[in-house]
Amino acid sequence: MTTDQTPSLKSNFIIAIDGPAASGKGTLARRLARAFNLPHLDTGLTYRAVAAELLAQNLALDDEAMASEIAANIELGNLDKDILSDHKTGEAASKIAVMPGVRKALVEAQRNFASKAPGAVLDGRDIGTVVCPDADLKLFVSASPEVRAKRRHEELISKGKPSDYPEILSDLRIRDERDASRTDSPMKKACDALLLDTSKMDIETAFLAAKKWANAALAAKSKD
Ligand code: C5P
After folding, report:
1. Which amino acids bring their CB within 6 angstroms of ligand 1?
2. Which CATH fold would you assign to the domain 13-214?
């Protein structure tokens, strides 16, 4: 059997992808989900949805009780990337993501998503460490802050949106620091995650590397 064939699954096949903002993890997760016919959950959108609701209602971003209540009622099917993807919402999301009450509610919804057959691809900051510690494949996707800021800057410009590279770089650094230093579920590479540094890779090269690892994980699982 070549590694590109899909063996029958004995149980859920879960791919956990973590990494900082603009590392390329979202694109990789979407492409792997398509290649392996699995549903995909961008867990960042769940944190963004909570933040967006607080902002829409003019509520304080440090109101943990209210944020947790919103988190407990998030409908995963209603997450709209186009609406939630703006820079301000990402910044606000990283502020409410430090709250244990918010994380508890969202992690429960994320685990529920992953528990359904035939499995799933999830991307975020704590998938391999907290949400799906038993995932079949764990990737930690990274790139230098400068490369990530350049990608985000070019993406905004290509969409005709205003962008200031030094500001994007500074915000990314602050967000990385906040995500990596929080007490509850900080962003970190799981000890059994494979590191994919995309600083000098285009997305196609990164995808082919990830797909190879995923095929190997799937083949190993089918032997169990
Ligand atoms: O990935 P994205 O940039 O959309 O995530 C927005 C914010 O949500 C992150 O900066 C992080 O603070 C939070 N997040 C998290 N855990 C996840 C996914 C996102 O804390 N699994």
Report:
1. 21, 43-44, 47-48, 90, 93-94, 97, 124-126, 175, 179
2. Rossmann fold (3.40.50)
